[in-house]
Description:
Blueprint: H1 19-28, E1 34-36, H2 37-44, H3 51-63, E2 67-70, E3 73-76, H4 78-91, E4 102-107, H5 114-126, E5 130-133, E6 136-140, E7 155-160, H6 166-173, H7 176-192, H8 196-210, H9 227-245
Antiparallel strand pairs: 1-3, 2-3, 4-6, 4-7, 5-6
Helix pairs in contact: 7-8, 7-9, 8-9
Amino acid sequence: MRMNVSVQPGEADVRPLSARSVVLSLLLGTHPPELPVKDLVRLVEPFGVGGSTLRAALSRMVAVGDLRRTDAVYGLSDRLLVRQRRQDEAVHPRTRAWEGDWEMVVITATGRGPAERAELRTRLTALRLAELREGVWLRPANLVRSLPDQLERVAQSYRARPEGSAHELAARLWPLDAWAATARALLAHVTESHRPADLLTAFAAVVRHLLADPVLPPGLLPADWPGQALRTAYADYQRELARSVR
């Protein structure tokens, strides 16, 4: 299985934001992720979201479990706090010097249905692993992290070192040139965006793309890899957004 790139290489995956998307984007970028409704009314106005539209969206989001409400303060639910942590890790991945070892996860469970298999693939992809062949997932062991305990019920993890070229293996597992082309398109789009709504939409696309970055060791990446430039641009935007929230 190869890394997901949801648009054609060189195209920015920019989608219009609904009132719900605007609220989630603001809260996902806020630490701690909670805001009084009066601040939300002020913050969403530049994005074309009126007060009545906002309040209707907040009610729906509480009802479906996106948000929790305490008095007049809205915060992310536990489920979306997990998403925020994953987003934070995408922007600031914790890495270590790579010594040539690879993580290898081998699926050992059998008899799983299609939905369960799809969920497991999603979880493994979110861990920045890529599928070499069915049931065998790999990545360089350069991330500072441990695999979730839940994986032990369905898989065995190992350390391995390929005999062939690690550079060629990485290129086989991830479409690196396509990821880089889309990242450059997003950087160009961000530079050309000036209105608050356009910037929020652009950086929502940036976050989606960073979640698909394999975060490989520098020696396995193509020249002029734009991953750090994309992270820096988003971190700068987050600081500006935090100032607006305050």
